[in-house]
Specification:
With about 350 residues, the protein is α/β, with parallel strands linked by helices. Helix content is about 40%, strand content about 15%. The strands form two sheets. The chain has a seven-stranded mixed beta sheet, with helices on both faces. It has a four-stranded parallel beta sheet with strand order 7-8-6-9, sandwiched between helices. Helix 5 packs across helix 6. The protein binds 6-O-phosphono-beta-D-fructofuranose. The site of 6-O-phosphono-beta-D-fructofuranose has 11 residues, from loops.
Length: about 350
């Protein structure tokens, strides 16, 4: 009888997830396994909510965004006060379903749960393999995660388009870009899309510095400014976060809007108008989930496909407690432990490269 492998996708969706699923199913069936998809991540495991995946189910899905098996942010180990440890329920479900192995596709949170189940599960369900995923590109143990390239391109195109309208109105446009703890998307999209100021969570920003740069641009005849700001950016003297998600992460959003209001006021009060009717104006917009939606780029389709293909190979070789990872152009195996615990943030040197182009270094 064919061995049953369960797969799950957890956390925020990322373009390329379906390519991974397709890679696992095609190579898994070729190697003689039955592949089953848990619906909505760890929630599917807790509820034994699973469906078989056939070749017909995955036909051509690598071209589509999202995940055909759904996702959720559901922890199995407690992450904040009031949450129960549900890991024993998860193990019981995996056993009841008669699964030989589980492939968890996710970021820091989902793979963190997989790693903990592998290590602390007392050998109850040790056949676990991971696949790294996140548009934020902030996972350790891999050079890139799929989804990132698509998000960068979406944000870059938005910035490209905003140049003409912002310039025509002589405005300041503040574009809030996803990235909770790491500014990878903002940095790369900002550089590629020609933002004039790039703010990332790794470096606290100073509102006065922003005012100074915008003022200098106006005074030197550059009558518009585009600011790319990562949603996780904090000001030097920021106040404490309020709401958190099930994994205990702060709910983000709003940094762009807060800069907009204060900057417009500051410019109006501190800048000389070029003519009486002129108004200094700032506008902000959050790209939000647009950055995760729609078709993956070729890069993410291929990376996802290769990771999927190799994830099932890890299962076949019995390399449990590992995840597939991109090193240079090769797909290799690294321990799940290597991927979780700390995040891969933007190194200072990388940010400084961008500052040189911005004329700020
Ligand atoms: O998955 C990563 C991410 O897109 C972050 O960039 C962002 O902060 C978060 O997810 C948004 O989460 P949600 O989809 O739950 O609003």
């Amino acid at each position: 009888m064919a061995k049953k492998i369960g797969i799950l996708t957890g956390g925020g969706d990322a373009p390329g997830l379906n390519a991974v699923i397709r890679g696992i199913v095609i190579n898994g069936i070729r190697l003689g396994y039955e592949i089953h998809g848990f619906i909505d991540g760890w929630a599917g495991v807790l509820n034994s909510n699973i469906k078989p995946l056939t070749l017909a189910d995955v036909e051509d899905i690598h071209r589509e965004g999202g995940t055909i098996i759904g996702t959720s942010r559901t922890p199995i180990f407690p992450k904040k006060e009031g949450q129960k440890d549900r890991s024993a329920e998860a193990v019981a479900s995996l056993k009841k379903l008669g699964l030989y192995a589980l492939i968890a596709i996710g970021g820091e949170d989902t793979l963190g749960e997989a790693n903990r189940l592998y290590n602390d599960g007392k050998g109850e369900f040790p056949n676990i393999v991971g696949v790294p995923k996140t548009i934020d590109n902030d996972l350790n143990g891999t050079d890139y995660t799929f989804g990132f390239n698509t998000s960068v391109n979406i944000a870059m195109e938005a910035l490209d388009r905003l140049h003409t309208t912002t310039k025509s109105h002589h405005r300041v446009m503040i574009v809030e870009i996803m990235g909770r703890n790491a500014g990878w998307i903002t940095l790369e999209a900002g550089m590629a899309g020609g933002a004039h100021i790039i703010l990332i969570p790794e470096v606290k920003f100073n509102f006065d510095d922003i005012c100074k740069i915008v003022k200098e641009r106006y005074e030197s005849g550059k009558s518009y400014t585009i600011i790319a700001v990562a949603e996780g950016c904090k000001e030097v003297d920021a106040t404490k976060p309020s709401e958190t998600d099930p994994f205990g992460h702060e709910k983000l959003g709003g940094v762009g809007a807060s800069i907009e209001k204060r900057l417009e006021k500051w410019l109006t009060e501190n800048m000389k108008k070029p003519y009486p009717e002129f108004k200094f104006e700032a506008r902000s917009m959050a790209l939000g989930h647009l950055q995760r939606g729609g078709a993956p780029t070729a890069y993410d389709r291929i990376l996802g496909a290769r990771l999927g293909l190799n994830a099932i190979k890890l299962v076949h070789e019995g390399k449990f407690g590992h995840m597939v990872s991109l090193r240079g152009t090769d797909i290799v195996a690294v321990t799940l432990q290597e991927a979780v615990g700390t995040l891969k943030t933007v190194p200072t040197e990388r940010y400084e490269e961008a500052l040189v182009f911005l004329g700020l270094k």
